[in-house]
Design a protein that fits this description.
Chain lengths: ~425, ~325, ~350
Amino acid sequence: MTTVELGKQTPPPAPRPKGEPVLSVRNLAKHFPIRSKGLIRRKVGDVHAVCDVSFDIYDRETVCIVGESGCGKTTTGRLVLNLIPASSGSVVWRGQDLTTISSRGMRPLRRDMQIVFQDPFASLDPRMNVNELVAEPLRIHGQYRGENKGREQVRDLLAQVGLNPEHGSRYAHEFSGGQRQRIGIARALALKPRLLVLDEPVSALDVSIQAGVINLLEDLQEEYGLAFMFISHDLSVIRHIADRVVVMYLGKVVETAEADELFRRPSHPYTQALMSAIPLPDPVKERERKRILLTGDVPSPVSPPSGCRFRTRCPKFANELDNAQREWCVNVEPALEAKFTAHEAACHFASARTDILEVGADMRAVPAELAQWPTGRPSDEQASQPMSCAPEDGAREPIRISDDVTVDAEGELVVEES
Amino acid sequence: MLETHETLKEGTQPGGPGVDKPTLTEREFTVKERKQWQMALRRFLRHRAAVVSLVVFVLLVLFAFVLPYFWHYKYTEFVSLCTQSNGLAGPCSPSLKHPFGTDSTHDMLAVTMRGTGQSLKVAFLIAAVGTGAGALWGVVSGFFGGFVDSTLMRLADLVLTIPSLALAAALAHKGGGSLVLIGLILAGVAAPYVARVVRGVVLSLREREFIEAARALGASNTRIMFRHLLPNTIPVLLVNATLLIAQGILAETALSYVGFGIQSPDTSLGVLISTNQGAVENQPWLFYFPGVFIILIALSVNFIGDGLRDALDPRQTRERK
Amino acid sequence: MTIDLEVDDTQREADPDALLVVDNLTVSFPTDDGVVQAVRGVSYTVRSGEAMGIVGESGSGKSVSSMAVMGLLPRNARISGSVRFRGQELIGLDEDEYAKLRGNRIAMIFQDPLTSLNPVYTIGFQIAEAVHAHHEVSKQAALERAVELLDIVGIPYPEQRINNYPHELSGGMRQRVVIAIAMANNPDVIIADEPTTALDVTVQAQVLEALETAREETGAALILITHDLGVIAGHAERIAVMYAGKLVETGTTEEVFYRPRMPYTLGLLGSLPRLDKQEHERLTPIKGAPPSLLNLPPGCPFTPRCPIAEDICDRDEPALLAAEGTGHAAACHFRSRVADIDAAEMFGTDAADDAPEVLA
């Protein structure tokens, strides 16, 4: 039985790559102001696109950020590259905090950290041919040394990404989607960066073409020792390429682990639901799988739910917990911590499931996990702690769920009037 | 590249007889390579009026700048007059010797060529300088946004509220009717129009991902503006420049007509019309020939602009309507 | 271009269950550069209650072929061949009769639900209207049925939701409203064209669940058009794989997924990263890109990307032929050979893409 093993085993500490991380993100947050319409455009609120996100990236490592649309993964990528200023928190790149650097001071650092965009159609200047596109970063940083040598550099780069260097004088629109994405990769590689932020690099491509680009990225990482921050919504691609995975929901990290560990024992209900929602290209398995269906839609990031942000759609909250336990979810923000599994999950009632990808495995929570669950109701003090990135900061009134307060299908609290 | 190709052929070919195929990726597809400008050209050529206008316009330019070298009268040269019906010597009516006739001193064909040339020069100057300045204005305004944008755009509004012809007349008169000065002044008045259009285009371009990509590469603001934004406004600039030529011709005419344009002994189409308006009754050729040329230039340039706009419009597809 | 198509005889029109018979359907669009042959002789039969999947990459003609079936192509499209629904020929039907058929006997679900919802009416009104069209019931009863239908497709608080306008709902909910309307019409066939492509995976799961429910309730046949092999695997009994405007492989889902007989299908499966595979295997990309459907050269359109292509492939386009005694057909000269080859073995795991590109 897989689950019994789970409980007995004290999980080994997650193996960390040696040395200092090249990139270290701490408590990163980004709030976009919402302004009223009209002349004055008064600020009427904040969208909490990214809230309290922390992770590290080591050399030669692929860290994947996964989540659905609106979870803040793309914003996180832009924040890491300092393309938009962070509201708070820090992005430390080899000892230097990028959030405090001016855009002028940032320019030389951009040699080391590059980005590949999702849309290979929009991210290439339509008025430049391939040679010019790939030479552009070299010219910007004064590394385009003479027409002959520069041309040679560009040819090398094109060959490296698997394009025919003879096609350098063509324009981007003359290429297929996969080849355009390769042009984007060649451009990002031109300055020999150490970190590549890949923002959904293959989601716009057809499957047969996507595979070639993924293989290319793997080869390049191997050859140049690149660190990848790979942003995607597609768990299949992530399982294939990731060393470590950060799962985001509504601007926050809900679970993070080594890739193998995460896919073997997802612990957060959201990660579990996400995994079970991915259709498998295998008719027999696909028909036998039991899906965890989430209800409702992602709440607005303008006013995220109190406590755990996922509770409004959480199947565990709706079906498995009693009212005392629900009070934890409603009032207390779960911390991202490794309780019993080898990895961190932000859920009070986390329990690993092994039955999501393996058909027929057991899924009940084991005693070791249950022992870590909070008991009783949260104390008033715990329940009135301010939320991070809450619409209004400061202490709150705890919400008590008693017999006349119930939780509806969408996870909202309903006071029944008798 | 060749290596990978080789590996594929040798190493990963599936077994079985006859599966070895050396030319597996070498077959080209049959779609013709099609560059952006080729597609634009094709669309332009489909626009009949624009093509005819282009031919007319080229002929006009040749007429103004090349033909004078071959015509046996110079515009400064005095010609002998003709005997008129009343027995007095006066301007000749059109004949083989003087196809456009003469006025009281000069061969009208030579003068019209000179006038067309000068008018075109002014128009080209307006188009070039006006478009250039407007593009710069619009790109800076649109790229920086915020305070810079509001300041520059309010300035543009200000210039646009000034009655441009009056301003130009006043300034040109002070400058003594030099062609370059007139061109520059009219260009300055035209620039805000271009700036507004360009700013609009830049505002939408600015949000495109390739601009963010340039920033991520470490490009400076100047580089983003001039190497990425400006080239992408070229279709708009081109269309605007043609329209400015037409407007320039008319503005120069108007200015000269009220006497503040190019001064004699030099001439322009506007000057010719203005000086010969009294002759409509007796020597109509003096008035109508320059008039026809003004209309020809303005019309043809407008049609060319129309054709360009259709040709360069990115919404156009290959699909036939 | 007419192609001699010999689809397996088992599903010819003699079939009494045949609901929708598409026969040698060809669609082309005239353009400046010549004629684009979007669909080149597609034939298939859908039987009552069955779920058929059409899978293909962008530009393979999968959407165009279904639009042709539904009579929704722009006027400049040239359509030939035949589409028979319960024996009635649809090609050449006039717009009024087509409209009667659509959303009545044939329901459609598009990628963007807003194309099928009227923005100025509440969703309750729109569902009730569909109920009315088929049952002589009071307004109140129709609304009650609307609530019931919304509940069936998994929309929370259906009593309140019926008063919402389409723009007030999220994409996933709209798509479920469209499904509810389809159910109200009690159609014989539901054609779903990339119904979940624009949605997040968790929402996609909800919508697919609603689609399954709708099928159970109405007993309708389903034509599911998608590029996602995972979605197809779980929701179709039979699959047709499309490439360059033609069906290149048809068969039961198991046959196609476990023993593909067309190199393209094999390559497609090999290039999918798998969530259910723990060991790290290299993906096997297919080099190059699909051909342009403009002035397609003779021969098999997959030849330039195919590792086992031979001279014959350049000359003759293979017909869709069934293997002995099965309904599993593939359009490949070497179909019997393909069945036993591994994707990695055939395509290699190379990362380069030096194949000649296709210019759009």
